Amino acid sequence: MAGVREVLIDQARRLVAELHPEASAAVLAGSVAAGRARTGSDLDLAVLLPDGQGTHRETLRHEGRGVEGSRTPAPGWTSCGPSPRPPAAGWSSSRRRPG
């Protein structure tokens, strides 16, 4: 039987395939990436999209699980380092919850 981490990775793959089939790449972060995921963990996901689709942050539910998502076009993508923009007003970049 697959572990919690593998189940969540598979769910993230399905989400990207269903909602963003045009995506060039996706990065799974948070507790799943750190190996601390539990059954009720949410998915923290960044999706790299083709140019011209704009940057957007969203919170949604997929297959009953909470998802914190970020979509960004290819020219704005950076593979490491801090975001070039500050977090949205009222949000803590370290906790990703209203501040």
Describe the protein's architecture and organization.
The chain is of the alpha+beta class. It has one domain (4-76): Beta Polymerase, domain 2 (2-Layer Sandwich), CATH 3.30.460. Helix content is 21%, strand content 28%. It is built from 2 helices and 4 strands. It has helices spanning 4-19, 30-34; strands at 25-29, 43-49, 56-62, 65-73. The protein has a 4-stranded mixed beta sheet. A hairpin with a 2-residue loop joins strand 3 and strand 4 (65-73). The longest helix is centred in the first third of the chain and has 16 residues, at 4-19. The termini are far apart. Mean pLDDT is 76; it is low at 78-99.
Quick summary of this structure?
The protein is 21% helix and 28% strand. It has 99 residues and is an alpha+beta fold. A four-stranded mixed sheet has the order 1-2-4-3.
